[in-house]
Amino acid sequence: MTDDAPPTDAAVAAVHPEQWLERHGDVLYRYALAHLRDAHHAEEAVQETLLAALESRHRYTGKSTERTWLIGILKHKLIDHGRRQWRETPLDEENYSPDDPADGAANNPRLFDESGHWTLALRQWGNPAHALAQRQFWQALDKCLAAMPPKLARIFMLREVSGVESEKICQELGVTATNLWTMLYRSRMSLRHCLERTWLA
Amino acid sequence: MLSCKDISRLVSESEDRALTRWENLGVRLHLLICRNCRRFSWQMKVLRQALRHFDTGMEKLQDDADALSTEAKDRIRQALQCRRQDHPG
User: Fold this and answer.
1) Ranges of chain A whose pLDDT falls below 50
2) Which of A2, A4, A47, A194 to substitute to test the interface with B, most B CBs within 10 Å?
Protein backbone atom coordinates (compact mmCIF):
# COMPACT_ATOMS: atom_id res chain seq x y z
CA MET A 1 0.00 0.00 0.00
CA THR A 2 2.68 2.38 -0.99
CA ASP A 3 0.38 5.03 -2.40
CA ASP A 4 -1.70 5.21 0.76
CA ALA A 5 -0.32 7.37 3.49
CA PRO A 6 -1.42 6.17 6.92
CA PRO A 7 -4.60 8.03 7.80
CA THR A 8 -4.29 10.85 10.25
CA ASP A 9 -7.01 12.37 12.35
CA ALA A 10 -7.50 15.02 9.73
CA ALA A 11 -8.19 12.31 7.16
CA VAL A 12 -10.90 10.61 9.18
CA ALA A 13 -13.77 12.19 7.32
CA ALA A 14 -11.87 12.38 4.07
CA VAL A 15 -12.99 9.50 1.92
CA HIS A 16 -12.75 9.91 -1.80
CA PRO A 17 -15.43 7.78 -3.42
CA GLU A 18 -14.77 9.32 -6.82
CA GLN A 19 -11.20 7.99 -6.67
CA TRP A 20 -11.94 4.52 -5.32
CA LEU A 21 -12.23 2.86 -8.66
CA GLU A 22 -8.96 4.25 -10.02
CA ARG A 23 -7.02 3.77 -6.82
CA HIS A 24 -8.29 0.43 -5.59
CA GLY A 25 -10.43 -1.05 -8.35
CA ASP A 26 -7.78 -3.35 -9.81
CA VAL A 27 -6.56 -4.67 -6.47
CA LEU A 28 -10.13 -5.32 -5.32
CA TYR A 29 -10.85 -7.04 -8.62
CA ARG A 30 -7.80 -9.30 -8.50
CA TYR A 31 -8.61 -10.16 -4.91
CA ALA A 32 -12.17 -11.02 -5.87
CA LEU A 33 -11.11 -12.91 -8.99
CA ALA A 34 -8.67 -15.06 -7.03
CA HIS A 35 -11.56 -16.02 -4.73
CA LEU A 36 -14.38 -16.42 -7.20
CA ARG A 37 -12.49 -17.55 -10.30
CA ASP A 38 -15.02 -15.92 -12.55
CA ALA A 39 -14.68 -12.49 -14.16
CA HIS A 40 -18.37 -11.73 -14.06
CA HIS A 41 -18.80 -12.62 -10.39
CA ALA A 42 -15.62 -10.73 -9.55
CA GLU A 43 -16.79 -7.54 -11.28
CA GLU A 44 -20.12 -7.81 -9.50
CA ALA A 45 -18.42 -8.24 -6.15
CA VAL A 46 -16.30 -5.11 -6.74
CA GLN A 47 -19.35 -3.10 -7.71
CA GLU A 48 -21.33 -4.30 -4.69
CA THR A 49 -18.37 -3.46 -2.48
CA LEU A 50 -18.07 0.09 -3.74
CA LEU A 51 -21.81 0.65 -3.50
CA ALA A 52 -21.87 -0.67 0.06
CA ALA A 53 -18.85 1.48 0.90
CA LEU A 54 -20.61 4.53 -0.52
CA GLU A 55 -23.60 3.96 1.73
CA SER A 56 -21.53 3.38 4.84
CA ARG A 57 -18.76 5.89 4.16
CA HIS A 58 -19.67 7.88 7.26
CA ARG A 59 -18.63 4.80 9.25
CA TYR A 60 -15.07 4.87 7.96
CA THR A 61 -13.04 5.91 10.97
CA GLY A 62 -9.64 6.19 9.36
CA LYS A 63 -8.17 3.56 11.69
CA SER A 64 -7.10 1.50 8.68
CA THR A 65 -6.22 2.64 5.19
CA GLU A 66 -9.04 3.23 2.80
CA ARG A 67 -8.01 0.14 0.85
CA THR A 68 -7.97 -2.13 3.90
CA TRP A 69 -11.42 -0.84 4.78
CA LEU A 70 -12.68 -1.57 1.26
CA ILE A 71 -11.16 -5.08 1.30
CA GLY A 72 -12.93 -5.67 4.61
CA ILE A 73 -16.24 -4.90 2.92
CA LEU A 74 -15.28 -7.03 -0.08
CA LYS A 75 -14.69 -10.04 2.19
CA HIS A 76 -18.34 -10.00 3.24
CA LYS A 77 -19.42 -9.84 -0.39
CA LEU A 78 -17.14 -12.78 -1.18
CA ILE A 79 -18.87 -14.95 1.39
CA ASP A 80 -22.23 -14.11 -0.23
CA HIS A 81 -20.90 -14.92 -3.68
CA GLY A 82 -19.20 -18.07 -2.44
CA ARG A 83 -22.51 -19.26 -1.03
CA ARG A 84 -24.30 -18.52 -4.30
CA GLN A 85 -21.66 -20.24 -6.44
CA TRP A 86 -21.68 -23.20 -4.11
CA ARG A 87 -25.42 -23.62 -4.50
CA GLU A 88 -25.17 -23.37 -8.27
CA THR A 89 -22.51 -26.06 -8.55
CA PRO A 90 -21.71 -28.19 -5.52
CA LEU A 91 -18.26 -29.70 -5.33
CA ASP A 92 -19.35 -33.27 -6.03
CA GLU A 93 -20.05 -32.45 -9.64
CA GLU A 94 -16.50 -31.54 -10.30
CA ASN A 95 -14.43 -34.17 -12.04
CA TYR A 96 -11.20 -34.71 -10.26
CA SER A 97 -8.30 -36.39 -11.86
CA PRO A 98 -6.09 -37.89 -9.18
CA ASP A 99 -3.16 -37.94 -11.58
CA ASP A 100 -3.32 -34.25 -12.28
CA PRO A 101 -0.40 -32.74 -10.40
CA ALA A 102 -2.43 -29.59 -9.77
CA ASP A 103 -4.99 -31.60 -7.88
CA GLY A 104 -5.12 -34.41 -5.39
CA ALA A 105 -1.46 -34.22 -4.48
CA ALA A 106 -2.51 -35.46 -1.04
CA ASN A 107 -3.52 -38.75 -2.57
CA ASN A 108 -0.75 -38.83 -5.08
CA PRO A 109 0.95 -42.19 -4.50
CA ARG A 110 4.25 -40.68 -5.51
CA LEU A 111 4.15 -38.25 -2.61
CA PHE A 112 4.04 -40.93 0.10
CA ASP A 113 5.10 -44.58 -0.08
CA GLU A 114 2.93 -47.44 1.22
CA SER A 115 4.14 -46.99 4.76
CA GLY A 116 3.23 -43.28 4.60
CA HIS A 117 6.75 -41.86 4.31
CA TRP A 118 7.60 -39.00 1.98
CA THR A 119 9.09 -40.36 -1.22
CA LEU A 120 11.07 -37.20 -1.96
CA ALA A 121 13.05 -34.86 0.25
CA LEU A 122 11.18 -31.62 0.91
CA ARG A 123 12.96 -28.36 0.27
CA GLN A 124 13.81 -25.60 2.65
CA TRP A 125 11.63 -22.58 2.05
CA GLY A 126 13.55 -20.23 4.28
CA ASN A 127 12.34 -17.19 6.13
CA PRO A 128 8.68 -16.28 5.40
CA ALA A 129 9.47 -12.57 5.33
CA HIS A 130 12.09 -13.21 2.68
CA ALA A 131 9.73 -15.29 0.56
CA LEU A 132 6.95 -12.73 0.83
CA ALA A 133 9.24 -9.97 -0.36
CA GLN A 134 9.97 -11.85 -3.59
CA ARG A 135 8.01 -11.06 -6.69
CA GLN A 136 8.77 -14.59 -8.00
CA PHE A 137 7.12 -16.08 -4.94
CA TRP A 138 3.87 -14.22 -5.62
CA GLN A 139 3.99 -15.04 -9.31
CA ALA A 140 4.36 -18.71 -8.44
CA LEU A 141 1.60 -18.54 -5.85
CA ASP A 142 -0.73 -16.81 -8.30
CA LYS A 143 -0.01 -19.45 -10.92
CA CYS A 144 -0.46 -22.34 -8.51
CA LEU A 145 -3.75 -20.96 -7.17
CA ALA A 146 -5.00 -20.58 -10.72
CA ALA A 147 -4.12 -24.23 -11.39
CA MET A 148 -6.24 -25.46 -8.49
CA PRO A 149 -9.73 -26.82 -9.24
CA PRO A 150 -11.95 -23.71 -9.00
CA LYS A 151 -14.35 -25.03 -6.40
CA LEU A 152 -11.61 -26.24 -4.14
CA ALA A 153 -9.84 -22.93 -4.57
CA ARG A 154 -12.94 -20.93 -3.61
CA ILE A 155 -13.29 -22.72 -0.28
CA PHE A 156 -9.58 -22.52 0.33
CA MET A 157 -9.47 -18.78 -0.32
CA LEU A 158 -12.39 -18.09 1.99
CA ARG A 159 -10.61 -19.93 4.76
CA GLU A 160 -7.00 -18.85 4.24
CA VAL A 161 -7.15 -15.44 2.63
CA SER A 162 -10.40 -14.02 3.97
CA GLY A 163 -9.83 -15.86 7.24
CA VAL A 164 -13.43 -17.06 7.60
CA GLU A 165 -13.74 -19.50 10.53
CA SER A 166 -14.15 -23.19 9.68
CA GLU A 167 -17.49 -23.37 11.53
CA LYS A 168 -18.83 -20.44 9.55
CA ILE A 169 -17.81 -21.97 6.22
CA CYS A 170 -19.50 -25.24 7.20
CA GLN A 171 -22.69 -23.39 8.14
CA GLU A 172 -22.77 -21.10 5.13
CA LEU A 173 -21.97 -23.75 2.55
CA GLY A 174 -23.58 -26.70 4.24
CA VAL A 175 -20.55 -28.99 4.29
CA THR A 176 -19.51 -31.18 7.20
CA ALA A 177 -16.44 -30.27 9.20
CA THR A 178 -14.66 -33.46 8.16
CA ASN A 179 -15.27 -32.72 4.48
CA LEU A 180 -14.05 -29.18 4.91
CA TRP A 181 -10.83 -30.32 6.62
CA THR A 182 -10.23 -32.81 3.82
CA MET A 183 -10.76 -30.18 1.14
CA LEU A 184 -8.44 -27.75 2.90
CA TYR A 185 -5.84 -30.48 3.33
CA ARG A 186 -5.98 -31.32 -0.36
CA SER A 187 -5.72 -27.65 -1.26
CA ARG A 188 -2.68 -27.09 0.92
CA MET A 189 -0.97 -30.23 -0.34
CA SER A 190 -1.50 -29.38 -3.97
CA LEU A 191 -0.44 -25.77 -3.46
CA ARG A 192 2.67 -26.81 -1.58
CA HIS A 193 3.57 -29.33 -4.24
CA CYS A 194 3.07 -26.81 -7.01
CA LEU A 195 5.00 -24.05 -5.24
CA GLU A 196 7.94 -26.30 -4.60
CA ARG A 197 8.20 -26.97 -8.31
CA THR A 198 7.25 -23.54 -9.63
CA TRP A 199 8.82 -21.13 -7.21
CA LEU A 200 11.99 -23.03 -6.34
CA ALA A 201 12.50 -24.60 -9.74
CA MET B 1 3.14 -44.65 15.45
CA LEU B 2 2.01 -41.83 13.16
CA SER B 3 3.32 -41.82 9.60
CA CYS B 4 4.47 -38.75 7.68
CA LYS B 5 1.19 -38.86 5.81
CA ASP B 6 -0.74 -38.77 9.10
CA ILE B 7 1.43 -35.91 10.29
CA SER B 8 0.83 -33.86 7.14
CA ARG B 9 -2.89 -34.26 7.68
CA LEU B 10 -2.71 -33.28 11.35
CA VAL B 11 -0.48 -30.28 10.66
CA SER B 12 -3.03 -29.12 8.10
CA GLU B 13 -5.97 -29.71 10.44
CA SER B 14 -4.28 -27.89 13.28
CA GLU B 15 -5.08 -24.73 11.32
CA ASP B 16 -8.79 -25.53 11.26
CA ARG B 17 -9.47 -27.22 14.59
CA ALA B 18 -7.83 -27.77 17.96
CA LEU B 19 -5.89 -31.02 17.96
CA THR B 20 -6.38 -33.37 20.91
CA ARG B 21 -3.61 -33.59 23.47
CA TRP B 22 -2.49 -36.94 22.05
CA GLU B 23 -2.48 -35.72 18.48
CA ASN B 24 -0.43 -32.74 19.55
CA LEU B 25 2.07 -34.91 21.35
CA GLY B 26 2.25 -37.29 18.39
CA VAL B 27 3.00 -34.45 16.01
CA ARG B 28 5.59 -32.92 18.30
CA LEU B 29 7.46 -36.19 18.79
CA HIS B 30 7.39 -36.97 15.10
CA LEU B 31 8.74 -33.53 14.18
CA LEU B 32 11.66 -34.09 16.55
CA ILE B 33 12.87 -37.03 14.54
CA CYS B 34 11.69 -36.27 11.00
CA ARG B 35 13.34 -33.57 8.94
CA ASN B 36 10.92 -33.82 6.03
CA CYS B 37 7.93 -33.25 8.29
CA ARG B 38 9.69 -30.38 10.01
CA ARG B 39 10.14 -28.82 6.60
CA PHE B 40 6.55 -29.54 5.73
CA SER B 41 5.34 -27.88 8.90
CA TRP B 42 7.53 -24.86 8.17
CA GLN B 43 6.28 -24.66 4.60
CA MET B 44 2.70 -24.61 5.86
CA LYS B 45 3.66 -21.70 8.08
CA VAL B 46 5.13 -19.78 5.14
CA LEU B 47 2.05 -20.53 3.07
CA ARG B 48 -0.31 -19.37 5.80
CA GLN B 49 1.54 -16.10 6.26
CA ALA B 50 1.60 -15.48 2.54
CA LEU B 51 -2.12 -16.05 2.19
CA ARG B 52 -2.87 -13.70 5.08
CA HIS B 53 -0.96 -11.03 3.16
CA PHE B 54 -2.54 -11.82 -0.14
CA ASP B 55 -3.56 -8.22 -0.88
CA THR B 56 0.02 -7.03 -0.50
CA GLY B 57 1.13 -9.79 -2.83
CA MET B 58 -1.43 -8.82 -5.41
CA GLU B 59 -0.06 -5.29 -5.36
CA LYS B 60 3.35 -6.68 -6.24
CA LEU B 61 1.83 -8.23 -9.36
CA GLN B 62 0.06 -5.00 -10.28
CA ASP B 63 1.62 -4.84 -13.72
CA ASP B 64 1.13 -8.35 -15.00
CA ALA B 65 -2.01 -9.66 -13.33
CA ASP B 66 -5.61 -9.33 -14.45
CA ALA B 67 -7.15 -5.94 -14.05
CA LEU B 68 -10.60 -4.51 -14.52
CA SER B 69 -11.29 -3.81 -18.19
CA THR B 70 -12.16 -0.29 -19.28
CA GLU B 71 -15.71 -1.45 -19.99
CA ALA B 72 -16.03 -2.98 -16.54
CA LYS B 73 -14.77 0.23 -14.97
CA ASP B 74 -17.32 2.22 -16.94
CA ARG B 75 -20.11 -0.03 -15.79
CA ILE B 76 -19.07 0.28 -12.17
CA ARG B 77 -18.58 4.03 -12.45
CA GLN B 78 -22.07 4.37 -13.83
CA ALA B 79 -23.57 2.30 -11.04
CA LEU B 80 -21.77 4.43 -8.48
CA GLN B 81 -22.93 7.64 -10.10
CA CYS B 82 -26.55 6.52 -10.10
CA ARG B 83 -26.31 5.70 -6.44
CA ARG B 84 -24.70 8.99 -5.55
CA GLN B 85 -27.41 10.93 -7.33
CA ASP B 86 -29.99 8.98 -5.36
CA HIS B 87 -28.24 9.64 -2.09
CA PRO B 88 -26.29 12.89 -2.34
CA GLY B 89 -23.96 14.01 0.39
Assistant:
1) 1-3, 7-13, 93-107
2) A47
Per the structure, the complete domain to which residue A116 belongs is given by 93-198
Distance CA A78, CA A158 (A): 8
Specify the number of domains making up chain B: 1
Does residue B56 fall inside a structural domain? yes
Closest to A34 in 3D by CA, of B77, B75, B55? B55
Shortest alpha-carbon distance between residue B26 and chain A (Å): 15
Which structural domain, as residue segments, surrounds residue B42? 1-60
Is residue A161 domain-resident? yes
In angstroms, the CA A31 to CA A44 distance is 13
For chain B, count helices (H), then strands (E): 5, 0
CB contacts, 8 Å: A188 with chain B: 12, 44, 47
pLDDT digits (tens, 9 = 90+) for A57-88: 888 888 888 888 999 999 999 988 888 888 77
Same domain, A68 and A24: yes
Cβ of A51 within 8 Å of Cβ of B44? The answer is no
Q: In this structure, are A64 and A111 located in the same domain?
A: no
Considering the domain boundaries, does residue B67 fall inside one?
A: no
DSSP structure class, residue B16: T
Partner A contacted by B16 (CB < 8 A): yes
